[in-house]
Each structure stands twice: as structure tokens, then as C-alpha cells.
Specification:
The chain has about 525 residues and is of the alpha+beta class. The protein has 3 domains: about 325 residues, no CATH class; about 120 residues, no CATH class; about 60 residues, Arc Repressor Mutant, subunit A (Orthogonal Bundle), CATH 1.10.10.410. It is about 40% helix and about 20% strand. The strands form 4 sheets. A 9-stranded mixed beta sheet has the order 2-6-7-10-1-11-12-13-14. A 3-stranded antiparallel beta sheet has the order 5-4-15, with no helix packed on it. It has a two-stranded antiparallel ribbon with strand order 3-16. It is elongated, with a radius of gyration of 30 Å.
């Protein structure tokens, strides 16, 4: 099978996503008061409403409606004042009432979109699109592997058709069988705990053109939802799930091809790899004279392939009709404004603020802004830095993105545990101040950070107790520099003859003489000055 980059020379992929997100930060389900709890004992959080027993009437969850309006505002959607719930009918083995309450043609949120930034090598999958690069190609005129390295980034807008509200189904547990496939199971069990969990589904326009764009879009959407606080967005636990629709057409053609649907991608990598495989598979079918079937397929990460789940000859007929137990919604201007007032600073705006207000490099600002806990910790530290915030922003960012993040990842803990434990935002400000004032080196800062984790002591106390204060006395440094130059006259002569790389040797000798506590920047400056004078 051809690789993706080769396929995209001749074929254009047309991709749309359907992103399902459980509103896990709410306390109760969409239409009843049953609690939402992942991992609870099966069928312990159920009631007549979510089981669909006769006579049980649904009552909408106001907080869920607020959450979907938040999602719509954050993704530039039009908030529809009037909408209603429908019953979607087909056989649900994991929903006992055998229909799903969802929205019809008009959803709470319609016609939105997100700007997507695709940078560097990530842009290579779309390098054949006009305006994204200028490839000269090889001798035969075809772009080669090395040509993709020169691809520049680009911006693209991904349209959002709608975000609608519905209730989630339960969970099937398949037991037995040798292949691990659903169809091979000996029998299946049903856990109805998840039934009725409020679920929002975002449907994009078919504006995505590469698996990388799809991955970046899903990552950006997840960051927005986490910032809004409407879901934990755990792909491992199934609270964020994604289906992908993909078709191919010859480059230059405007006619859409036959699409296939990939169901329930549960990681960013699976989404990218599943779409990439399906694009290459469809290209192989079309180039061999075959026909792509409209079907639903399943991605098998272990086998790195998609397999047929079911074939769709025609569109599904769900027999949608208005739910007679739920009145139409009329959202007031006051309600929409009250939700708008709750909008937090979104990742794109946060990134821009970090760059414009504190002079952070774009890459650092992006890494901070796209992590809710990390950016909150950074902001807390900057507030504590007061008038020194602009000066300390870069040292604090370095600590957070390197030492702190590495330690958290290695120990599998989050920022809340860190703040409640040995390292506070105040402690990071103090540590960064010691580096900025040259009292300790960046290398010593790593030692101090480790000691803060171990002891819980303040940076200043650790520096004092361990004698880590950096030697920055210019008179003392100059004396050491002159002594080393007199000790190695032949090296001085070589340096002056043009071997300027020897500066590293001289600085190393000075660091030895100061037991590693000399200020390397100052040592370098004084050596450069004295060697030029000699």
C-alpha cells in the first residue's frame, strides 16, 4: 500500500468529524437526578427515567444547557433561541427504552468555526495544496521526501455545522471469544450507568484535508472544552470520542467521492493513523478500478488497519419525531448573556497575551496556553511576581515547561497535588528570582528544585543551607581568570591565533576552580575581555 504523502500527490482527502463529549463535570444526568460516576459498580446509577420505564417523565438539566451554550460561544456558533428535542429510533442494545433523546434539524448551536494553525513539518501532509509551499521537486519533477522539510505552516478555518445535545447510551461488555471481536463474543452484558449522561455532539463541515488537520482540530477542541470546565475530556474513559468521515477525489475535482465512516477513535494517534490508513486504502481501491463502498469501519490499532463493521446502502431512517414529553426551548437573551459572561479566557487569547504582555516565545506561550493547569499555575506565579512579572516570565516558564512538567509526568500527579505539597507558585517565583539575579545558575536551579520537592523548604533556605550561592564577584572572578591564563600560556597563544573554541576550555577550568559555583556568563565575559587584551 502507498504511503500517505505519495497518495496525496494525486488525491485530495475530504474529512469531516463528529465529536461526542460527555458533560462529566455535571453532577447528574441529562433528564434525571442519577449521579454521573465513571467506574461505578454496574447498574447502580439508574432510575425509571434513564431506564425508560413506562410513565417516567424526563426533566431537562439546566446546567447541561448552559454548558452546550458555553461550547457554542467558544466555537463561534450562532446560539439558536428556539430548538427542541426529538426521539431518534433504532435498535439500541445498550439503551433499554430503545430510542435516544436528541435534537432535530435545529440544534442549540449552529454555523460556527475554528481557526486552525498548522506549523512546520506537520504541514507536509497538505503540501500539495496551493499557497502552502513551493516545492521544486526532483529531477523527474516529482516532489521527494527531502522536499517536504521545506514546507511552511498555514492557517485554515474549519467550519462547524452544529453542536447538538443528546443523551448517551449505556455500555456493552462482550465476554468470551478467541479473536477479541464483538462478533466472536460468547455473550454480552449491559451496564446502564452511562445511559442518560448529557452528551454534546459537534459536527464539522467537510473542511479538513489531512489526518494531521483532524488531529490538531480535535486537540484544539479538547483544550477549549477543558478551559470551559464542561468535561474531563478523557479519551481513555470514553468521555471524548470521535468519528471520522473520509472520501477521496482527484486533485482539481470538486465532486465528492463516496465516504466511509470510522467509528469511536479514542486517541489523537488513532484518529490520525485511522484516517491515514483509510485514505491510502481508498486510493488503492480507486486506482485498481474498484469502487469505494459507503460503510462504517472500525480501526484496529494493533493490526494498523480498518475493517468493515456494517455497509450502508442508503441513509439511516431514524424515524425522528418531536419528543412529546419535552416542550420546545426558547432561550432568552438574558439567559444567553448570562452564559456569555461566564466565558473564560480561551487558549488562543491566552497565548496572545503571554506573547504580547510578557514577551514569551510563541512556542512557550503555546505550550503554556494549551494546558489549563499549567497556564493557571503560570498566571498565579506572575501575579505573585508583581512588578517583576515581565522579567521573571521567561525563567518561570522554563521551570514549568521543563523541570516541573518532567517531575509531574514522572510521578503521575497533577498540579493540584503539587500546589498542595512542596512546590507553590510563590516558591517558583523565588527560585526564578535567584536565577535572574545570578545568585544561582540554571544548573543549580535544578538542584534547588529537587531539594524543594524533597524537603518542602524555600529556595533561599536551600541555597543557604547547601552553600549553592553562585560566585558573581567580578573582582574574585578576574583573579581566577588571570591565574588560569598564566597557568596555560600555550592555550592563550592558540586562542589568540584563532582557536576561539578554546573559550570553553578556559570557562571549564574556572568552573572547576570555583567548585562549580562561578557565574558562567560572567566568567565567559571576563575571559573574552582578558584574552583579547593579552
Amino acid at each position: 500500500m502507498k504511503d500517505l504523502q505519495t497518495v496525496l500527490v494525486d488525491w485530495e482527502a475530504v474529512i469531516g468529524l463528529e465529536v461526542h463529549t460527555e458533560l462529566t463535570t455535571l453532577n447528574t444526568k441529562m433528564f434525571c437526578s442519577c449521579p454521573i460516576e465513571f467506574g461505578a459498580k454496574p447498574n447502580t446509577h439508574v432510575c425509571p427515567v434513564c431506564l425508560g420505564l413506562p410513565g417516567a417523565l424526563p426533566v431537562p438539566n439546566k446546567a447541561a444547557i448552559q454548558s452546550i451554550v458555553l461550547a457554542g460561544l467558544a466555537t463561534n456558533c450562532e446560539i439558536m433561541k428556539r430548538s427542541m428535542f426529538y426521539r431518534k429510533n433504532y435498535f439500541y442494545p445498550d439503551m433499554s427504552k430503545n430510542y435516544q433523546i436528541t435534537q432535530g434539524p435545529v440544534a442549540f448551536c449552529m454555523h460556527g468555526g475554528l481557526e486552525l494553525e498548522v506549523n512546520g513539518l506537520a504541514a507536509k501532509e497538505r503540501s500539495h495544496l496551493e499557497g502552502t509551499q513551493s516545492l521544486e521537486g526532483n529531477a523527474d519533477g516529482d516532489p521527494g521526501a527531502d522536499d517536504y522539510k521545506a514546507v511552511i505552516g498555514y492557517m485554515t478555518r474549519i467550519g462547524i455545522t452544529r453542536i447538538h445535545m443528546e443523551e448517551d447510551a449505556g455500555k456493552m461488555i462482550h465476554v468470551g471469544g478467541s479473536s477479541g471481536r464483538i462478533t466472536d463474543a460468547d455473550y454480552s452484558l449491559v451496564d446502564y450507568n452511562r445511559c442518560g449522561t448529557p452528551l454534546i455532539e459537534l459536527v464539522t463541515e467537510p473542511d479538513l484535508r489531512t489526518p494531521e488537520e483532524a488531529r490538531l482540530f480535535l486537540q484544539k477542541l479538547r483544550q477549549i472544552y477543558l478551559t470551559l470546565g464542561i468535561s474531563d475530556c478523557s479519551m481513555e474513559e470514553g468521555s471524548l470520542r470521535c468519528d471520522g468521515n473520509v472520501s477521496l477525489r482527484r486533485r482539481g475535482s470538486t465532486e465528492l467521492g463516496t465516504k466511509t465512516e470510522l467509528k469511536n477513535m479514542n486517541s489523537f494517534k488513532n484518529l490520525h493513523d485511522g484516517l491515514a490508513y483509510e485514505i491510502c486504502r481508498q486510493a488503492e481501491v480507486l486506482e485498481s478500478g474498484g469502487t469505494v463502498r459507503q460503510e462504517t469501519r472500525h480501526w484496529e490499532p494493533g493490526a494498523k488497519r480498518t475493517i468493515t463493521m456494517r455497509v450502508k446502502e442508503t441513509a439511516d431512517d431514524y424515524r425522528l419525531f418531536p419528543d412529546p414529553d419535552l416542550a420546545p426551548y426558547d432561550l432568552s437573551d438574558e439567559f444567553i448573556q448570562s452564559v456569555r459572561d461566564r466565558l473564560p479566557e480561551l487558549p488562543d487569547a491566552k497565548k496572545q497575551r503571554f506573547v504580547s504582555d510578557f514577551g514569551l516565545p510563541t512556542a512557550d506561550a503555546d505550550n503554556l496556553a494549551t494546558d489549563v493547569d499549567l497556564s493557571a499555575f503560570f498566571d498565579e506565579a506572575l501575579r505573585g511576581a508583581g512588578a517583576q512579572a515581565a522579567e521573571l516570565a521567561k525563567p518561570i516558564a522554563n521551570l514549568l515547561l521543563n523541570d516541573v512538567s518532567a517531575w509531574l509526568n514522572a510521578n503521575g500527579i497533577g498540579f493540584e497535588s503539587l500546589k498542595a505539597g512542596p512546590v507553590s507558585a510563590k516558591g517558583l517565583v523565588e527560585l526564578s528570582s535567584l536565577v535572574l539575579s545570578d545568585e544561582i545558575s540554571s544548573k543549580q536551579a535544578k538542584e534547588v528544585f529537587s531539594a524543594m520537592i524533597e524537603t518542602g523548604d524555600s529556595p533561599a533556605a536551600i541555597v543557604e543551607a547547601r552553600g549553592l550561592k553562585q560566585v558573581s564577584d567580578s573582582g574574585e572572578i578576574e583573579r581566577i581568570v588571570l591565574g588560569i591564563m598564566s597557568q596555560y600560556p600555550e592555550k592563550v597563544a592558540e586562542y589568540q591565533a584563532g582557536k576561539t573554541g578554546l573559550i570553553g576550555f578556559f570557562v571549564g577550568q574556572a568552573m572547576k576552580a570555583t567548585s562549580g559555583q562561578g557565574n558562567p556568563k560572567l566568567i565567559n565575559e571576563i575571559f573574552t575581555e582578558k584574552l583579547q587584551e593579552a
